[in-house]
Amino acid sequence: MVEAQTAPTPLAPLLLRNILLPLFIYSDKTLINLSHKFKLFHIIRYTLITAFLFFLKVIPSFISSSLQHSQNHNHNHNSDSEFDSDSSTYPWVPFLKGSGNCNDLAGADGSLVDETCIARALTQLLAILNEIPVSSRKYEIVRSYAEKLMDENLEEGYEPLRKVNAKVLSAAFSRALQQLQSAAVAAAKYDIEKNTTTGGDVTRKGGGYFGLNRVIKTVGHYGDFAWTQFTKPKTRLRVSAEKLSAELLWLAEKLVACGSADEAVQQWASASKLACVALSAPQRLQGSLVKLSVYLFKEAVSMGGQYDDMEELRKVKTKLLMSWLPFLCRATIGVEAPVLTFNEKAELENMLGKLIESLKHEEEQEKVLSLWLHHYAHCPSSDWPNLYQYYDRWCTASRNLFILQGKQEK
């Protein structure tokens, strides 16, 4: 199949805006200081400004002519190759059976979810919903299509259709979770680089100020930005982390509706890297992740019927608590507009206590409660979740067990 080609992005405007212009501005600031003391630098500055203005005047006409030639070439190529009636080739459309590129459609168990037309239709709807921004007027339309399709599958009361919903939703949840983790890690790295980069490193020599270090850093920063913008795929729109977290909550609700809450809980429990990065995430993102975590903690309490092996269920619950309890202790849950109400906070504390007590093994409870105590004590800005009554109950049970074992040995 032949893929529809996208128009190439011109590199010249990108380089001009992100590299040459900042470089010229910072260099000009340096030359201003020197031109007040040395006439030669005044002449050099005047020459550079004149040449740069001439360059700005000439380059637009060159870019427009290049773009026109490129567009004409692409148009002729598409007309000859894609829509040739004799060659029986058509533009590639994702999610059509036999179109290839099905690796992104694999479910959590590794099997494909495009076994039926209805499954492929739902997969395509969720993939489009993942790609388009919330600001698009088509976002709610596509979302309503997906909800209608899933609701009708459940209303039929046919078990294979319920499994179609569960399988497709599980794959979509996994995809969005990976995207959110990548976005959060990239944002954290960007914040670290932004904080460690010191602007205005100026060295004083002979009465003049040389911003060479600053110029070099600016060129490096904007050069990396321009390179990533030029080389990354243009077929996907960038989605915000807040949008992905809200999408994950919606997918989790749909998984619960089709009786597959364990899929969302298990994947969320395994997202320990995201939980770690979320500690330094922006407040709005933390609020969204708190809502999602609270929802999945509540679902984890009622889990059990989907697992034949209770030992495996305890491992999932332990992993969920160990991954996300530190985040709940340290996350910003809002002051002016709280993420959770007082009753919701109290309800979640009760749910967390039930989860901890369901672990049965004393060592598992000890790991979870000691982790909670560490983060709860070292976070002065928050008193939630307060699990002291469950910590005290565990201490009492451990003390009684120790006494009982001592008496039995005698």
UniProtKB/TrEMBL annotation:
Membrane-spanning segments: 43-63
Keyword vocabulary terms for this entry: Membrane, Transmembrane, Transmembrane helix
InterPro entries noted in UniProt: At3g05675-like
Protein name, as recorded: Uncharacterized protein
Organism (species): Lactuca sativa (Garden lettuce)
